[in-house]
Design a protein that fits this description.
heterodimer; A: mainly alpha; 2 domains; 3-stranded antiparallel beta sheet; B: alpha+beta; Penicillin-binding protein 2a (Domain 2); Beta-lactamase; 7-stranded mixed beta sheet
């Protein structure tokens, strides 16, 4: 069972994961250089963020999960309080209230909840018989729902979705019965009209735009149409690095952040996309292996949930950019330009590495 | 908490469930990623061509390069219509941070009307991806200077130079040259939009309109790669514009100006033609107006004043004014009599002062109450005897009269190279039946014989017919433009004219008619002998006086009793010199009274100027 990759007792690192992440970050910088119109400042800032992320990942990887476990409820509580604070005194940016200004720096409490919520749910479920009873399931649902709803209220649908799904993945991995899952999905479909009623007008518009982007080509449909043009015109082998006309002539909005996948597809084509998906799939698979090899309920549930959340990131972003999912503001992990999500993602990988590399110590 | 209760759990069962779930999750991830691959395959392979096209359309913009409009010169190379550089102030919307503040700041430097701001804001809304939007046209040099000094305060403005038409001589020759104006909505439907993409002006009347295609030139294009704001990133392909061709007119502008001055006090028209070539030497319609007003965009008040003035300055009388030609057509009627064998040159008619049809009491009066006595064609022309032509017209009948006059261009357009020409009216039995649904009366034939009744002719038609007569039957379609100059390849193309011949049975008939007209000015009893008396050259002419109102049988015409607008029109046609004529003229002075008194002296002065004062400056390409 023991991997020859992880035999260094002094530095806890998972080499396959690290290689995957490095590959991805490197590709991200290459695409970003093109998408950002060869702006070197942008690259430098992204490198600094990545380094920060790597630092956090390294630190977390050295810490045995057991040392973190007892802090989980407190982290969760703090997170909830911060989320409430955001709604009360948070700063507005682009129409939503997501930021807390702490004087020295500002940050999004919702980001760290992406990690804390699955930890909290796992913590709550792991010490009892699995699959969980209905009563405990209900409590877990409340644990997930409170932060998810608070974030959705900001409004930040993308993050709320991630927070919610990261919690739900724990439940699924914990053995939630399929009957229950299918029943829940059915109820969800039945509740769609109610959900529609509760949605913000801009959210409704995004859904409508997805269904028919050509209806409003210069308004809400503009992003999707331009993004599809970028991807489609890229073809099998792409227009070549730095040669994507859609992106360089600024037809493509948000091309360094949420829509960077369109730039990538335009310049590197379908073949390039297959390479990128290959690397993602390698990281996801390695994460699954780590989850399988984890030695106790808590770590395996947490690892599985983190991997699946990472997957949701990828799928939702690519789906949105290629026009099969509504536009929700989610970056493409480790490729998109942007601060907070990189730190959270790297922290997640740090936890995965910790889970894997501290295994032997536990079994010993 | 969890570590202490670890032992109580059924780890085997849990492991199994967890293992299952992870495998399922792994396959689901694989499935969803495949979904993305399928989606991208659909976009990038199956629909690749469609999106490539869309992408090209996105980035490539066609920008028009408007051509420079051709210049118009007179026959001696004097500029009649040129292009001036004018400056407009344009705003680049994407660089404007606070529009109202910027407008306020700019209006402190130059005056900007509220209406201009309103128009600007309208354009701003309409053009989403435009480079720059004009705020003010036609900046003065002073304004350009003031803006240039303050330029560094405004990154969002541009001073653009454009070429606009100007007519250095103002009103002189306007009825021939015409003018350009802003393209209106009606014209927008007709014109070739791609060729006018960068042009704001087009010819509205005159030469400017007739030769619009040649003067305008061909718009060039730039295929430019643009970004989302429409800013040019780089030029991919450039097709330069083909500038408009320059035009040299047959008109001698000093002559034109002189002719205009001779009738400056009247509502009048003067047309002078070179008989041999059909070249229009002068085309005068008075009063006239300044075409520059229309280029700038005439204000409503001035326009209404021009439009509603009783003197009708906007009407081109020379080609659109239709007048009863009166006695000026008598030479042609006389020729018809000879050609159809109704009269011999020596045939005599007794004039007793009036003419009556058999069995009718109505008297068709001669202008001379006492009568002219025995008249042949020569003397009838010399003295403008009405009775001779009453009788002749009656014997010819309207059908023959109609078809003969038609050959000289009466009742149809001459085909001059100006737009809006009227064809006049040469009445016929068939015409009256068709248009008025009434039968033709013999009395109507009689008055047609002296150019009254239904008959109408434009001054141009009279000049062309006179030129044809002077050419002894050679009809030349009149041409205002002389030669087209393609400056690009240095090629001069003469403007062609259509030529036709009116054959008569005997060439001597021409001599009879021309001889009669010579007698009008040089004969002892000629109606215009005063103008011919001290002439330095011999010429031929014919007076005409057209009644504006019908005088009752019991009344006589008395100018003093009538309001000016009911006074007779004065007409005169002439050509000179008698041998190898170089100029044929038609003059009409509205309500000018008698042709001999008012019109003939004008025509003489015009011919004098042309024949005696102008050195024979001709362009080298003139071909006989």
């Amino acid at each position: 069972m023991q991997s020859t990759w992880n035999n260094n007792p002094f530095l806890h690192l998972d080499k396959p994961l690290l290689i995957g992440i490095l590959l991805l970050s490197g590709m991200g910088l290459i695409v970003l250089y093109s998408a950002g119109d060869q702006n070197f400042d942008l690259i430098v800032r992204q490198i600094l963020r990545l380094l920060t992320g790597f630092g956090i990942m390294l630190v977390l990887a050295q810490i045995s999960i057991q040392h973190i476990v007892r802090w989980i409820p407190w982290l969760y509580l703090t997170g909830i309080i911060l989320l409430v604070l955001v709604l009360v005194i948070g700063e507005f940016s682009k129409g939503s209230q997501r930021w807390l200004n702490l004087g020295l720096f500002r940050f999004q409490p919702s980001e760290m909840m992406k990690l804390i919520v699955p930890m909290m749910v796992t913590w709550y479920l792991a010490d009892r018989h699995l699959p969980p009873s209905y009563g405990r399931l209900l409590s877990a649902a409340v644990i997930i729902a409170i932060p998810a709803l608070l974030v959705a209220k900001e409004p930040d649908l993308g993050t709320a979705l991630l927070i919610g799904s990261s919690g739900v993945f724990v439940l699924l991995l914990a053995g939630l019965s399929w009957r229950f899952v299918s029943g829940f999905v059915a109820t969800g479909i039945l509740c769609t009209p109610i959900l529609w009623y509760l949605m913000h007008p801009y959210q409704k518009e995004r859904v409508l735009t997805l269904l028919n982007p050509e209806k409003n080509p210069l308004g809400a449909g503009y992003h999707i149409i331009q993004s599809k043009i970028a991807i489609g015109s890229g073809g099998l082998d792409g227009k070549g690095w730095l040669n994507g006309t859609q992106s360089h002539l600024q037809f493509l909005p948000e091309r360094t952040t949420d829509f960077i996948f369109a730039v990538y597809s335009e310049e590197f084509g379908l073949l390039g996309v297959l390479v990128l998906l290959g690397i993602y799939f390698f990281i996801l698979s390695r994460g699954m292996v780590i989850a399988l090899q984890a030695q106790d309920t808590f770590t395996r549930l947490l690892a599985g949930s983190l991997v699946l959340t990472f997957f949701v990131y990828i799928f939702v972003n690519m789906g949105m950019v290629s026009g099969i999912l509504p536009v929700v503001g989610l970056p493409l992990p480790l490729i998109s330009y942007g601060g907070t999500s990189i730190v959270t993602l790297m922290a997640g990988f740090g936890l995965l590495m910790a889970i894997h590399t501290h295994r032997r110590l536990l079994s010993n | 908490m969890y570590s202490t209760r670890l032992i109580l759990k059924n780890t085997v069962h849990e492991n199994k469930i967890f293992y299952n779930r992870i495998v399922i999750a792994w396959f689901m991830m694989l499935g969803f990623l495949l979904l993305i691959v399928i989606r991208l395959f659909f976009l990038q392979v199956i629909n690749h061509d469609r999106y490539t096209t869309l992408s090209e359309q996105n980035r490539i913009k066609v920008l028009p390069l408007p051509p420079t409009r051709g210049l118009i010169y007179d026959r001696n190379g004097v500029l009649l219509a040129g292009n001036n550089v004018s400056y407009s102030l344009e705003v680049i919307p994407e660089k404007v941070k606070n529009l109202d503040l910027m407008l306020k700041k700019i209006s402190q430097i130059i005056t900007i009307e509220d209406s201009e701001i309103a128009l600007f804001k309208k354009k701003l809304k309409q053009s989403r991806y435009s480079n720059s939007i004009p705020l003010r046209y036609r900046l003065t040099e002073d304004e350009v200077a003031r803006l240039s000094v303050q330029r560094h305060h405004f990154s969002s403005i541009e001073i653009k130079s454009n070429l606009t038409r100007y007519y250095p001589l103002g009103a002189t020759g306007v009825h021939a040259i015409g003018y350009v104006g802003r393209i209106n909505e009606r014209e927008l439907e007709i014109i070739d939009k791609s060729n006018y993409m960068g042009s704001n002006y087009m010819g509205k009347v005159g030469i400017e309109k007739f030769y619009e295609k040649e003067l305008h030139g061909k718009t060039g294009f730039q295929h430019a790669e643009v970004n989302v704001q429409g800013r040019i990133v780089r030029i991919l392909e450039r097709r330069p514009p083909v500038p408009g061709k320059n035009l040299y007119l047959n008109i001698d502008i000093s002559f034109q100006k002189y002719a205009e001055q001779t009738v400056a006090k009247h509502r009048a028209a003067v047309v002078a033609i070179e008989p041999d070539s059909g070249a229009v030497l002068a085309l005068v319609s008075m009063p006239h107006y300044d075409p520059n007003l229309f280029v700038k965009g005439i204000d409503v008040k001035t326009y209404y004043e021009l439009r509603d003035s009783p003197n009708r300055p906007l009407i081109n009388r020379a080609i659109r004014g239709q007048y009863p030609p009166g006695s000026t057509i008598k030479a042609f009627v006389g020729l018809a009599g000879l050609e159809y064998g109704v009269r011999m040159p020596r045939s005599r008619t007794w004039c007793r002062g009036w003419y009556s049809l058999k069995g009718q009491k109505h008297r068709y009066r001669d202008w001379k109450k006492s009568g002219h006595g025995s008249m042949n064609l020569h003397s009838a022309l010399e003295q403008s005897c009405d009775v001779y032509f009453y009788s002749l017209a009656h014997d010819l009948g309207i059908n023959r009269l109609h078809s003969f006059m038609n050959r000289f261009g009466f009742g149809k357009r001459t085909g001059i190279d100006l737009t809006g020409e009227k064809g006049g009216l040469m009445p016929s039995r068939e015409w009256k039946q068709r248009l008025r649904n009434k039968r033709w009366y013999p009395g109507e034939t009689i008055i047609t014989g002296i150019g009254q009744g239904f008959m109408l002719a434009t001054p141009l038609q009279l000049a062309v017919a006179t030129a044809t007569l002077s050419n002894r039957g050679k009809f030349m379609q009149p041409r205002v433009a002389f030669v087209m100059d393609d400056a690009r390849i240095n090629e001069m193309t003469p403007i062609s004219s259509v030529q036709s011949t009116i054959p008569l049975k005997q060439g001597g008939y021409w001599n009879t008619a021309i001889g009669g007209m010579k007698a009008v000015v040089h004969g002892r009893r000629g109606t215009a002998k005063k103008v011919g008396r001290r002439s330095r050259y011999r010429f031929a002419g014919k007076t005409g006086t057209a009644q504006v109102i019908t005088i009752k049988q019991s009344e006589s015409y008395n100018a003093r009793k009538l309001a000016k607008k009911f006074h007779d029109h004065a007409l005169f046609v002439a050509f000179a010199p008698l041998k190898n004529p170089r100029i044929a003229v038609a003059v009409i002075v509205e309500n000018g009274g008698g042709g001999s008194k008012t019109a003939a002296p004008i025509a003489k002065r015009v011919m004098d100027y042309y024949l005696l004062s102008i050195p024979s400056l001709r362009l080298a390409t003139t071909s006989k």
